[in-house]
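Bench log. Compound arrived from synthesis this morning; before running ITC I wanted a structural hypothesis for how zinc ion sits in the protein. Inputs:
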Amino acid sequence: MSDIEVRMDRMSWVTYAERIKQEKPPVFLPVGALEQHGPHLPLGTDTLLSTSVSESVACRVNGIVAPALAYGYKSQPKCGGGQHFCGTTSLDAQSIISAVRDTVREFARHGVDKLVVVVGHYENQWFVTEGIDLALRDIGSSSPLRVMRTEYWDFLTEATLTKVFPDGFPGFALEHAAVMETSLMLHYHPALVRLDLIPREPSADFPPYDMYPPHTEWVPPSGVLSSALGADAIKGKAMAEQVADDMAAAIRREFNL
Ligand SMILES: [Zn+2]
């Protein structure tokens, strides 16, 4: 970790402009959600984690982290619990696409040539992809901007997953407010986690299809899709450091740093 400020919203425009011009740093855009994460985690979990992961990687590659897009695409019952929870606050796909398209185009105008879009909410990914694609079409092929998009959990290796889930990994869709996110929150934001409120209930058992309007009775009333029991800060640190190291290596490779 370095002492250099990584957050764009805490810099003056002058500092930001100098760094973009002289250092050509990677700029990170976290894309999260405001969504129920059970009784034990805050509504902003996806935004907090995508931002914290971005900051960890930015420290390793001398990058700058822009403020997150903090609202996500509509929560789906089988990966986020669904839209029926109070507090879950979601956008239409077109709004996500537009927000990503507009921000990517603005970074290009600033002279950013390396942009890393870090998705922290499963439901966002194809709308984020569309926003990036339309922005690149807007700015044209003569722009030097290159964009990496990632769902940060995809960096987790088999070795890390085996360590964190000794009884078997339930899959990222069911990993909502469960061991992975709770452990990462215990590492990055321990004061926001209520371990005493982790529900003791079996994992959700979804059929291989969706219904619209959704059957809310398929979703555990707590909003937790598989158990968060077993989450701890040591697992969180192991995941956070492995993801940050490997994402930093990917950024160095793709952007020739
Ligand atoms: Zn989440």
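What the model suggests: Residues 233-254 form the longest helix (22 residues). The longest strand covers residues 114-119.
ITC booked for Thursday regardless.
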